[in-house]
Every structure is written in C-alpha cells, then in structure tokens.
From TrEMBL:
Origin superkingdom: Eukaryota
Stretches that traverse the bilayer: none
Source organism (scientific name): Nothobranchius kuhntae (Beira killifish)
N-terminal signal peptide: none
Protein localization: Cytoplasm, Cytoskeleton, Cilium basal body; Cytoplasm, Cytoskeleton, Microtubule organizing center, Centrosome
Keyword Ribosomal protein listed: no
Record keywords: Cell projection, Cilium biogenesis/degradation, Coiled coil, Cytoplasm, Cytoskeleton
The protein's name: Centrosomal protein 290
Stretches assigned to coiled coil: 14-66
GO cellular component: centriolar satellite; ciliary transition zone
GO BP, one annotated term: camera-type eye development
C-alpha cells in the first residue's frame, strides 16, 4: 500500500516530468530542423558563390583572350604600317627637306630673337637717356624761370 501511495503521489510529478521531456524533445527537434535548414542554405550559398567565381573566372579568361587578340592585331597593324613606310623612299626625302626647312626656321627665329633682344636693350637705353634729358631740361627750365624772376625784380 505504501508503494501504491508513493506511486499516486509521484504520478502527477511523473506526468509533469514526461510532459517536460516531450516539450524539450520537441524543442530539440525544432532546433535540429532549423540547423539542417541553415546547413542547407549554407551549402546553397557556397554553391552559388562557387558558380559565381567560375563565371567571373570565365569572363576574365574571355577578356584576357580578347585583349591578347586586340594586342596582336594592333602589333600586326603597326608592323605593317612600319613596313609600308620603309618601302616608300619618297617619304625620307620629304622628311629630310622638312628637317632642313625646320632647321632654317629655327635659325631665323633665333636670329630674330637676338635682334629683338638687341632692339629691346637699345630701347631701354634710349628711354633712360630721354628721361635724363627730360630731367635736365626741366631743371634748366626752372633755373631759367628763376633767373627771369630775378631779372624782373
């Protein structure tokens, strides 16, 4: 009877304990399910990133190929133009004539620059002399005016 009485007294506590275990198990199951969802999402994100990296690498490879082709074409055009220019002897004659004319023009400019500098220096000297002469003339005019006043007195 004691045993039955203990069972009756522990029966509600046992029910509460079973219910708590069921609730905790349900929460644990929910958390595991959420963990699986997160892991699946992480796998999907990684796959997406890997796919994006592959696409970017492919785009980069294609761009490098285009750049190489463009560089090759430009180099070929440059070589072809250089060869064409080397085949035309008339360009060299015109170029040397142009260089001679350019040298003549540079010489003319240098001579004119020297001449202009000389004229500029002469102009400065003349201006200074003119200013001195003006000062002397003004001084003489004042002196003359002073003498006239003295004479009039």
């Amino acid at each position: 009877s004691k045993h039955e009485e203990n069972q009756r007294e522990s029966q509600p506590a046992l029910k509460v304990a079973h219910q708590t275990i069921k609730d905790l198990q349900a929460r644990l199951d929910k958390k595991e399910e959420m963990l699986k969802k997160c892991q699946n999402q992480l796998v999907q994100v990684r796959q997406g990133q890997e796919e994006m990296i592959r696409r970017h690498q492919e785009e980069l490879r294609v761009l490098h190929e285009k750049l190489d082709v463009h560089s090759d074409i430009s180099l070929d055009r440059f070589k072809q133009t250089a060869m064409e220019l080397m085949k035309k002897p008339t360009i060299r004659v015109q170029t040397s004539k142009h260089l001679e004319r350019l040298a003549e023009l540079e010489q003319t400019v240098a001579e004119q620059d020297i001449s202009l500098s000389s004229i500029k220096e002469k102009l400065k000297l003349t201006t200074a002399a003119l200013e001195r002469q003006r000062s002397i003339t003004e001084a003489q005019a004042k002196e003359h005016a002073n003498k006239l006043e003295k004479l009039e007195e």
